[in-house]
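== Sequence, structure tokens ==
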Amino acid sequence: MERVVNPGPIDRTLLLSQHEHKSELLWKVCVGRMQYDRALVTTMVERWRPETHCFHLPFGEVTITLQDVQVLFGLRIDGDAVYIQDATRKIRPWRTLLETLTGCTIAPTDMDGASRVRIHSITGYLRDQLQVDPIRDATPVERVERIARLYMLVILGGILFSNTLENLISLQYLAFLDPIHDVGKYSWGSALLAYLYRALCRASIGNVVDICGFIPLLQVTLLKF
């Protein structure tokens, strides 16, 4: 499913020539499902150096920056730090927190350890809930927030901070979703970049054959080099 990114002016009262301006085409870029270029990603991993956190290319050293994260994906690069270890010490057990914040009950068989859950159990619950009772204008705020937290959990654990555990995501991100209005205060962009750096360092050493993290950032940024 495609969506249109249109960060143009809301009020065009004075911008009478906007329909002729070059920015009109740039602001109407269609963003669809990205096809990963495995060969490109593999090649760049082989050129990543953990010592410098840079890609060493024939013409010099290049890297992914915080500016790339902010400009390309609109993620915040300032604000409070995302510190998982601190959250881990404060909140337990995670299954109870999941049910309290979202209403989603997970079977023990869908858990792996104390904090990892199969992503299909979350997305399946979301699908069932929205089929029975879709979000409408009259939907209570509490229900909207519960559904929103589940979507955020899937985005954080399954997309932005993906791991190599196939279909498992961490419930520890729930610590940053309560209260829900505080989600925007965290520096998700800097955390995402640090996580991707760590994934690249891991993937470039020894016989490691997989890579995790937000691969769209890696692939889109590589196109500028």
